[in-house]
Amino acid sequence: MKLQALMSNSGGAWKVFVPLLGSVADWPEHRWPAGGPIPNPAARLEVLAGLGYEPLPGAAWRWEECPAASAEPDDPRAAVDLIAAIDLRERCGEVAT
């Protein structure tokens, strides 16, 4: 199974999470305080390490914009959501929770 961390902003708070097989309630995640800037790469790495993961060697965050759930189809002025992803592995010698 390919592991990835995803990062998104909904409701004004950035969060990073690791989708796993099973219940969404069991996904490791971290939320930063609402209204803050996009967490920098060092902050993201620290959180991933705390969750028991690390990026694969050479992996980089990939950003994509998607139409917001409330957006009107085909409206170029509609809001978008930013979503980022990075390929992961469990940290050596640690079990991710």
TL;DR of this structure?
The chain has one helix at 41-51, and strands at 3-10, 13-17, 29-31, 53-55, 62-67, 80-90. With 97 residues, the chain is mainly β. Strands 1, 2, 3, 4, 5 and 6 form a six-stranded antiparallel sheet that branches.
Describe the structure.
With 97 residues, this protein is mainly β. The protein contains one helix and six strands. Strands 1, 2, 3, 4, 5 and 6 form a six-stranded antiparallel β-sheet that branches. A hairpin with a 2-residue loop joins strand 1 and strand 2 (13-17). The two termini are 16 Å apart.
How many beta-strand segments?
6
Query: SSE string, helix = H, strand = E?
Result: EEEHEEE
Shape: globular
Number of helices: 1
In percent terms, what proportion of residues is strand? Answer: 35-45%
Radius of gyration: 14 Å
Low-confidence stretches: none
**Class inferred from helices and paired strands:** mainly beta
Helix content: 10-25%
Labels describing this entry:
1 helix; mainly beta; six-stranded antiparallel beta sheet; 97 residues
Q: How does the SSE layout of this entry go?
A:
Blueprint: E1 3-10, E2 13-17, E3 29-31, H1 41-51, E4 53-55, E5 62-67, E6 80-90
Antiparallel strand pairs: 1-2, 1-6, 2-3, 4-6, 5-6
